[in-house]
Amino acid sequence: MRYRMFAALLLLVFARQKGSAQDKTEFFETKVRPLLLQQCASCHGSTQQLGGLRLDTREGIQKGGEHGKLLIPNQPDSSLLIQAVRYGGKLQMPPSGKLAKEQIAVLEQWVKSGGDFPQAHGKPTATTSAALWALQPVQKPKPPRVVLPGWNRNPIDAFLLKTLTAKGLRPAPPTDKRSLLRRLYFDLTGLPPTPQEIRAFLSDTSPNAYEKRVDKLLASPQYGERWARYWLDLVRYADSNGYQRDGHRTMWPYRDWVIR
Fold this sequence. Notes:
Radius of gyration: 27 Å
Largest sheet: none
Strand content: under 5%
Number of helices: 10
Shape: extended
Order of helices and strands: HHHHHHHHHH
Distance between the termini: 76 Å
């Protein structure tokens, strides 16, 4: 009887430890790894390691960088990583802007629970796919602070500027209205604007002249024709039967429906 009770106790302890390990792995793959990839990998990943630091592998995190050891397991307040993201000292990361409180809390919890990194010899584990952006829940990230006030016109520009700054690049100067219109037409319809459309756009001095042209093209049949062809190619659409028996077919309603 005592043996059975002892065995049951061991099984219970083992099950709890296994469950705890699984919880840690799930937390890392769904919370920590995506955060490191999205916020840190552009400067401290496979392509470049600023400050001698790499944050996308277990070995890189254990090694640290020029500023020393990155984290101390179970001690977030003493870990350089947490101090940096809290903006508590000279080292402030990411340099483009402080992380949201929720993101800092994720890193603090990770280090507090041991700072485990389920990755061996630089090779992703089977659960690495959970870190892919397409598999993450939809969120509205906080735009980073920009170093060129007035340059960005929408929140997306702030993210673009962050990446450019991380690579030591600066945005290109604004283009002229004629070139901007041609880029818009080639992108949305695949065709250049007519001379009449160019003159009309150049003479439009309203502050939303560009936005009006975008809306007009998005509502045009030419936009539908350009982008519907990718889907029609995928489903192998054809107006005829082919080379040997080119008979009459009434497939065009489907084509027009896709375009609309």
